[in-house]
User: What shape does this take?
Amino acid sequence: MRKWFRGTAFLVNNTLIHEDRTTLLNLSTRQSYLDFYLTQKSMLNTYPPGKFIFHGAGREYFKIWLVNLVLTIATLGIYAAWAKVRTRKYFYQSTELNGNRFDYHGDPKAILKGNLLVAGIALTYIVSSVYSPGFASLLLLTVMCLMPFFLVMSLRFHLANSSYRGLRFQFNGSTKTAYSKLALAILISLGCFVVLGMVYGIGSGFVDLEFNTVVSSLLVIAMPLVLMVCISFIFAIFISGLRLFVMNHSKFGNADLKCDAQFRNFSKATLKSISLAGLALFLLAIAAFAINMSVFTDLLDFSLPIGEEPSMLDDEASQEQAQVAMQAMAMLSSLGIIAILAYLVLFAFGAYLKTAIDNLVWNNTTLSNRHQFKSTASPIAATWIHISNILLIVCTIGLFLPFAKIRSTRYRISHMTFVPVGSIDEIVREEQGKQKAFGDSMGDALGLELGI
Assistant: This one.
């Protein structure tokens, strides 16, 4: 960029600063240059946003997936650690930003330690649940209490072994912070469960309160609404706590990532997602009720007169009985289809909510308090991709699984953009100069990666 100076300029506190940190123009004291600055506004950020590009292909990943599956089965799960590293390397190295690709450097031996730990805990729980249920319950409670510790260790390993242009990521969140946030979320959630219990008790007649007809009707209508709000509130507590903890303690080199998303925005996203899922399940419940009533009415229509012997049944009665049996079979088939649709609704809810939360988090995240991210993925489109992937996986007996993963990843990454203030090259050079040596030695020292 060459206008009336050489290099790049940034606007900081009403002052035009050159990239070598010399002051070019103080707009507060030299207002005569303000019009010139407004007409030359493009000088402040002449670099276009960096679009994330995913180069992964279904056929390529299918070969990797198939080899990983065969070797994992042949080695009784031991190769799973090497399969995870190989998979992550493929996806990282297939993701491009500004002409450069990400990379993964995880040590399979360190991941194997985590896998063996998980396998040992799972085996101990299964055996003890048969011979000592009390010990199994204690073991399960212990694992739940250690989850924040496992989460922090896993994130440290994962980010320390992820890089872009040779510059490693970091996670500096502490276990103490994780426990404090989890304890707060649990306490608030327990309060919500108390409210849910009261609502359920009132609705089920366990709480003896006298209501007139109008109040009872309003209570029946309000119960699902209160339930929906409480569930969305609980979801928002845990999701916001986890996502903000992870994002606000992550670094690219020594540059901090910071997310300013508000809790009310998480609440809106969860409430909208749960409302849509609840509406879909309500319509499915109405359909199931209508099918049941239809068949039940037909069963009532077909009844033997009192005192009539079975031998008096004529051919018409036998035909009606066969017809009722066919209707019952049709009812069971219809209810089975509705149950499958209900499962799809729950899967769709997860995909819709995840995409909405991803958009919320990334659109409110900055790097070094100035470089921004943009996520424009559509929750509806992501939901359709997720549902169609599930159907195709079922129809192909699981063989479409690698293609489904490529398809979902391509959609998510292709709607991500990095908006830098200045050149991406300058950002990387600046962080490379400040980065401390931690890299592989840090990841190997942790020796634990649970894939949380």
User: Anything to note?
Assistant: The chain is about 65% helix and 10% strand. The CA atoms of residues 154 and 449 lie 5 Å apart. The longest strand covers residues 50-54.
